[in-house]
Each structure stands twice: as structure tokens, then as C-alpha cells.
């Protein structure tokens, strides 16, 4: 009876794990290889200029080595970015202006504030649209118009207007973040609040439920799967908005400011390290929302 | 014969839907009296207005002609007085609420006190034989049990009138037999007035005290049959000559209705 060999569970698990990771690792490896090649190619000019100025010749080995160890390369090599990132995150006091944790926190706080404002605004507008005919016909075109204006054009205006009123720091950036993040919430919530089918609404009517009861007990809970899907988009959008809000001159703190000061001084490694920090922050935020989503929807029996 | 007060009185009800393809006469000159404690089945081919008539009684649709009287009120007044328990083909339970929570929902909406709610939930769960399942979530129950829970929900607030639109239509034959038996038992215990839409002749004959045969285009009543069957009805009654004769009469009624096509 025991002759029939069953694959050990651990074995199966391992195989599945490797099976899932393999394509990802392959792509990652390919990116890194291409990146190194690009770094050598793009930084070679500088090495050759230096050599020409000094009147020397560089061999291929020297050329490659020098392209990957410059202070201000056109394109820093992956290991330079990694070291820059590591140093920025772990190598500094977190209160230091050179710490990515410091700048990351500035960006994160504005992102969360903007995300909060955007989410509340999106939900309120959606509630209005679903319950009010006039809003149903008037709000959406404006919301769409607001998103078709380039945020890069809006951001400096917001910063300047707030600054002239004496408001700087978190709030103006949060407004820009909210500008981007309210829209997905609005679209998702309008759809979500409209999911209850005719039968559910008829039941509510047969119980003589008030509009308020219908909203809190039926429409709102039914909309949560849509809300969470939107929140994942919204929080990433809020981060983008915050970073864009940190780019206009004057900002000294935040990942966006770090990007900008890097480009002023040709600190490409700093730019790339800040870029990766921002990308990781985005990933973490989306994952956190995803975890809350999964827990909530599973508990509500709405997980799909 | 006891308590034969008229509860629902429809006098020449018409309902025409204006659609893009022109008017649809969902109901035309429908007159019917339903008495307290009646079990009335509506049977007829698809589109003959069974659903529309039930919805009109519950004030979910407004007739375009005729007068409808429920307990001496308009249907909408009756709805506001919480006279209707409505059961649809799908159970329509909220997945985020337990079975008890689902039954509690209309009670919360109607403002019943917590202790009262608890008592009522326990009572109706027993009535539909789901005692002990109150803490379960809908997905943990079979389709038949979910439908029973939705009936319990409709019973919990003591509506006089139970309106059921093909409540067992999505269930298999065996479960359906079982639920029909349970429904009769429940009706005997509660003495509710029940309006019941079905496609099935045996179901209509087995359950009803009054069978209303309808016919489409325009939706109308072609025959009203008062059942001679006794109130006490074991499932085996379906093999008796009386039952078979009644089923035959209903079938004839349906055929005559089709004759107008
Ligand atoms: N809301 C509506 N708008 C337009 N036509 C409708 C509507 N509801 C029902 N009808 C039409 O009315 C007729 C009767 O429908 P219904 O009462 O659902 O029939 P049944 O329940 O007997 O199958 C059908 O022709 C249907 O298409
Ligand atoms: Mg129908």
C-alpha cells in the first residue's frame, strides 16, 4: 500500500515556491544585466574624456571598472544604488538630512494625510452622486476634468498659493496628494454603492427602511470590495502626488526634495537611491492596504 | 370556516409598463379577493404578470388603473404599517451577517428592542427548523437552509401577509418537497395570509386553499379555483384522486389561457 510514492508535502511546496519565484528571478537578473551594460555604455564617454584629457589610453578592463565606480555617473550601477540606498536608510541618524528614513517619513506623513483627505472627499462625493440627481449629473465631468489637468502644472500653483498664505510643509503637499487620490475612490465608490441589486433594495423598501438605514446597512457594506480596490490605487497616487508636491523649489525635505537636490548637484546615486526608496514605500503602502482589505473582506464573507 | 375576513381586495387592477418597445400590459382588469388565512397560489406561464401582481400588492409597483385595498388601507400605507413579509427566489442574505444577524436586520430597521429581537429570532428559527444555526454564516448553509432563513426573516416582524415569489424555484425537487411540507406546517401554525407564485402545478395544488390561474398578453386571471383538499396534507395526498383531479383542473385552466394566443 505504501509503494505508491506520494510526493512529500515539503517537496511539493518547495517546487511550487521555486516555480513561482523562477520567472521573477529571471526577469530581475535580466534587468540587472541590462542595467550594468547600460551603465558601462553610458558612463564610458566620461572615462574616455578623462583619459583623453590626461593623454592616456584605457584598456577595456579599466574602462569597465571606471564606469562602475564613478562618483557622479550618468547612470549609476546597481550596486552603487544599493549601497547609496543602504547608507541612506541604515547608515545615518534618522534625524539627519542625509537619512532616507527622515525624508521618507516627511513624504509618508503628507501621503497619509492626503490619502485620508482624498478618501473622505471621494467617499462623500460618491455618496452625493448616488443619492442626489443633480450631483449625479454634474460632479463626474468636473472630477474627470480635474484629473486631466497635468499634476505637474497644478502642484507648483498649489504650493505657491499656500505659501503666500503662510502655509507650508505638510498641508499643501497633502492637498496635491488628495487631488490625485480622491478620483479612484470616487469612481470605485459610485460603482460600489450601486452594487446592491433590485431585490435587496426592494427588501429594504418592504421593511420601510429609511434612506439612512438603507445606506448604512446595505449600500455601504456592499461597496467595501470596490472601496478597497480603489484605495490601493489611491494610496499609490497619493505618494506620487506628494513627491510631485516636493519638487517645486523651496522644499528641503521629503523624497521629492531629495530627488531634486540630487539632480541639482549631479548626485545621480542619491537620485536613484531616493527613487528606490519611493518605489519601496509605494509597494509597502499598497501591500498594507491589501492586507487590511483581505482581513476585512474575509471577515465580511465578501472575499473573492 | 374560520376568520374569513377579506385582507386583500383587488378591483380591476391594471398595470401598463411604458417601455421603449411600446406599452406592455403586465396586468389587465385583475380582480381578486384574498381572505385572512388564505394560501393563494398564482400560477401561469412566464410573463403573465404573477410577479407584477405580487409586487403591486406589496406597493413595490403602482397600478395604472383600478383599486387595491389591503386591510382597509392602500398598499403603500400597508407597507409602511409593515404588513408584508416578502420572500424572493434568491435568499438575499447578507454575507457579512450571521443567520441570526440577517433575521435581526428588519427588526433593527423597525426599531425592535434588543431583548425582543433575540426572542423573535429564536422563535422564527425554530419555526423554520433552523434552531442552532443562528450563529452560522449564510455560506455555511445549503441553498434550502438559506431560503428557510429568508422565510424566517420575513416572519420575524409578524407581518400579516407573506408574499413569496417562486421561493423554491431554484431548489431541487427533493429539497422542494421538504420545504413545501415545512411551509404548510408553518402556515398552519401562524395562520398567515400567503401569496405564493409558482411554475409548478403540483406545488400549487399541494399548498393552496385558492389557486389563481393567469395568462399572458395582457396579464390577466383566467380561473380561480378553491381547493377542496383538507387543511391537513401529508405529502402522500398527492397520490389521491382528489389531488389528481385538482391538478388536472389547473392544467386545463392553463391550457384554456393559452387558447387566446
Ligand atoms: N419594470 C418593468 N418594466 C417593463 N416591463 C416589465 C417590468 N416588469 C415586468 N415587465 C413585463 O411585464 C410582464 C409581466 O412580467 P412578470 O410580472 O414578471 O411576469 P411573471 O412573473 O408571471 O413571469 C412581462 O411581459 C414583463 O416583461
Ligand atoms: Mg416572475
Report on the architecture of this protein.
The complex is a heterodimer of chains A (304) and B (261). Chain A is mainly α and 304 residues long. Chain A folds into 2 domains: 2-73, no CATH class; 100-299, MetI-like fold (Orthogonal Bundle). Chain A contains 11 helices and no strands. Chain A has helices at 9-54, 60-67, 78-90, 100-131, 133-148, 151-164, 170-193, 198-206, 211-246, 255-264, 268-299. In chain A, helix 4 packs parallel to helix 7, helix 4 (100-131) packs across helix 10 and helix 10 runs antiparallel to helix 11. Chain A is elongated. The relative contact order of chain A is 0.11. The model of chain A is unreliable at 1-9 (pLDDT under 50). With 261 residues, chain B is α/β, with parallel strands linked by helices. Chain B folds into 2 domains: 1-83 and 161-171 and 192-261, 3-Layer(aba) Sandwich (Rossmann fold), CATH 3.40.50; 90-158, no CATH class. In chain B, 36% of the residues lie in helices and 26% in strands. Chain B has 8 helices and 9 strands. Chain B has helices at residues 50-57, 75-80, 99-109, 114-127, 143-155, 173-190, 201-207, 241-258; strands at residues 6-19, 22-35, 39-43, 65-70, 84-87, 161-165, 193-198, 210-215, 220-226. In chain B, strands 5-6-7-3-8-9 form a 6-stranded mixed beta sheet, with helices on both faces. Chain B has a 3-stranded antiparallel beta sheet with strand order 2-1-4, with helices on one face. In chain B, helix 3 crosses helix 4 and helix 7 packs across helix 8. The radius of gyration of chain B is 18 Å and the shape is globular. Chain B starts with 5 loop residues before the first strand and ends with a helix. The relative contact order of chain B is 0.17. The structure holds adenosine-5'-diphosphate and magnesium ion (MG). Chain B: Residues 8-237 form the ABC transporter domain. Chain B: InterPro entries: AAA+_ATPase (IPR003593), ABC_transporter-like_ATP-bd (IPR003439), ABC_transporter-like_CS (IPR017871), ABC_transporter_ATP-bind (IPR050166), P-loop_NTPase (IPR027417). Chain B: Belongs to the ABC transporter superfamily. Chain B: This is ABC transporter ATP-binding protein. Chain B: Keywords: ATP-binding, Nucleotide-binding, Transport.
Amino acid at each position: 500500500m505504501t509503494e505508491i510514492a506520494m510526493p512529500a508535502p515539503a517537496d511539493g511546496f518547495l517546487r511550487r515556491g521555486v516555480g513561482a519565484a523562477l520567472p521573477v528571478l529571471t526577469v530581475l537578473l535580466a534587468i540587472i544585466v541590462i542595467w550594468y551594460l547600460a551603465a558601462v555604455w553610458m558612463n564610458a564617454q566620461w572615462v574616455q574624456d578623462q583619459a583623453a584629457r590626461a593623454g592616456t589610453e584605457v584598456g577595456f578592463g579599466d574602462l569597465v571598472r571606471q564606469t562602475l565606480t564613478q562618483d557622479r555617473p550618468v547612470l549609476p550601477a546597481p550596486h552603487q544604488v544599493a549601497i547609496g540606498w543602504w547608507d541612506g536608510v541604515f547608515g545615518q541618524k534618522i534625524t539627519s538630512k542625509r537619512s532616507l528614513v527622515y525624508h521618507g517619513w516627511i513624504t509618508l506623513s503628507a501621503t497619509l494625510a492626503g490619502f485620508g483627505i482624498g478618501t473622505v472627499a471621494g467617499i462623500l462625493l460618491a455618496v452625493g452622486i448616488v443619492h442626489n440627481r443633480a450631483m449625479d449629473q454634474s460632479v463626474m465631468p468636473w472630477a474627470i476634468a480635474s484629473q486631466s489637468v497635468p499634476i505637474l502644472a497644478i502642484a507648483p500653483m498649489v504650493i505657491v498659493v499656500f505659501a503666500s498664505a503662510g502655509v507650508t510643509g505638510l498641508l499643501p503637499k497633502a492637498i496635491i496628494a488628495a487631488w490625485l487620490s480622491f478620483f479612484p475612490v470616487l469612481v470605485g465608490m459610485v460603482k460600489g454603492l450601486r452594487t446592491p441589486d433590485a431585490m435587496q433594495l426592494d427588501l429594504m423598501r418592504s421593511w420601510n427602511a429609511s434612506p439612512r438605514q438603507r445606506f448604512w446597512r446595505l449600500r455601504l457594506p456592499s461597496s467595501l470590495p470596490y472601496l478597497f480596490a480603489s484605495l490601493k490605487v489611491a494610496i499609490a497616487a497619493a505618494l506620487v502626488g506628494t513627491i510631485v508636491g516636493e519638487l517645486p523649489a523651496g522644499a528641503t525635505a521629503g523624497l521629492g526634495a531629495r530627488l531634486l537636490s540630487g539632480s541639482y548637484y549631479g548626485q545621480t546615486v542619491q537620485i536613484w537611491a531616493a527613487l528606490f526608496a519611493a518605489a519601496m514605500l509605494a509597494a509597502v503602502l499598497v501591500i498594507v492596504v491589501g492586507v487590511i482589505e483581505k482581513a476585512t473582506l474575509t471577515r465580511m464573507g465578501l472575499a473573492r | 370556516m374560520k376568520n374569513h375576513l377579506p385582507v386583500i381586495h383587488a378591483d380591476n387592477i391594471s398595470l401598463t409598463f411604458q417601455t421603449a418597445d411600446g406599452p406592455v400590459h403586465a396586468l389587465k382588469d385583475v380582480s381578486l379577493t384574498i381572505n385572512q388565512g388564505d394560501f393563494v397560489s398564482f400560477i401561469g406561464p412566464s410573463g403573465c404578470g404573477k410577479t407584477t401582481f405580487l409586487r403591486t400588492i406589496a406597493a413595490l409597483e403602482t397600478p395604472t388603473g383600478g383599486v387595491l385595498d389591503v386591510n382597509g388601507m392602500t398598499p403603500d400605507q400597508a407597507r409602511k404599517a409593515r404588513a408584508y413579509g416578502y420572500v424572493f427566489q434568491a435568499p438575499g442574505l447578507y454575507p457579512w451577517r450571521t443567520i441570526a444577524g440577517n433575521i435581526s436586520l428588519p427588526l433593527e430597521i423597525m426599531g425592535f428592542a434588543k431583548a425582543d429581537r433575540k426572542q423573535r429570532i429564536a422563535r422564527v428559527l425554530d419555526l423554520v427548523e433552523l434552531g442552532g444555526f443562528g450563529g452560522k454564516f449564510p455560506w455555511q448553509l445549503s441553498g434550502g437552509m438559506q431560503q428557510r432563513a429568508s422565510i424566517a426573516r420575513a416572519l420575524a416582524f409578524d407581518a400579516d401577509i407573506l408574499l413569496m415569489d417562486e421561493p423554491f424555484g431554484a431548489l431541487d425537487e427533493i429539497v422542494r418537497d421538504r420545504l413545501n411540507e415545512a411551509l404548510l406546517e408553518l402556515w398552519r401554525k401562524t395562520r398567515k395570509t400567503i401569496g405564493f407564485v409558482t411554475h409548478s402545478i403540483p406545488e400549487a395544488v399541494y399548498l393552496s386553499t385558492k389557486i389563481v390561474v393567469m395568462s399572458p398578453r395582457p396579464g390577466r386571471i383566467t380561473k380561480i379555483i378553491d381547493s377542496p383538499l383538507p387543511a391537513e396534507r401529508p405529502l402522500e395526498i398527492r397520490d389521491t384522486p382528489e389531488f389528481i383531479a385538482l391538478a388536472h383542473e389547473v392544467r386545463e385552466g392553463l391550457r384554456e389561457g393559452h387558447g387566446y394566443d
